[in-house]
Write a structure and sequence with these properties.
Largest sheet: none
Family: Belongs to the CRIPT family.
Order of helices and strands: H
Shape: elongated
Helix content: under 10%
Number of helices: 1
GO cellular component, one term: cytoplasm
Structural class: little secondary structure
Pfam families: Cript
Distance between the termini: 20 Å
Radius of gyration: 18 Å
GO molecular function, one term: microtubule binding
InterPro entries: PDZ-binding_CRIPT (IPR019367)
Number of strands: 0
Strand content: under 5%
């Protein structure tokens, strides 16, 4: 759960762009190299385990943020900035 301001900061998806013009994954115009191995290239290397950890439960967060998805939803805050997004006063939630 992310607020409107932090929605722009979310990481890009790994699927190819739909349009050829201006796409970052095309070979024309200095985009991607031909026969480039993405696992061995050091530029823009993706790691499935994030470097940041959740403030509450110390679980690794998959994107840059303060809270994991579970803690952010249970507290009703934005996962990236910690701003109150949802009022969870009347919610029935358990820690199981």
């Amino acid at each position: 759960m992310v607020c409107d301001k932090c929605e722009k900061k979310l990481a890009k998806v790994i699927v190819p762009d739909k349009w050829k013009e201006g796409a970052s994954n095309t070979t024309e115009g200095g985009g991607r190299k031909i026969n480039e191995n993405k696992l061995l290239s050091k530029k823009n290397r993706w790691s499935p385990l994030g470097t940041t950890k959740c403030i509450i439960c110390k679980q690794q967060v998959h994107q840059n943020g303060k809270y994991c998805h579970t803690c952010a939803y249970s507290k009703g805050v934005c996962a990236m900035c910690g701003k109150q997004v949802l009022d969870t006063k009347f919610y029935k939630q358990s820690n199981v």
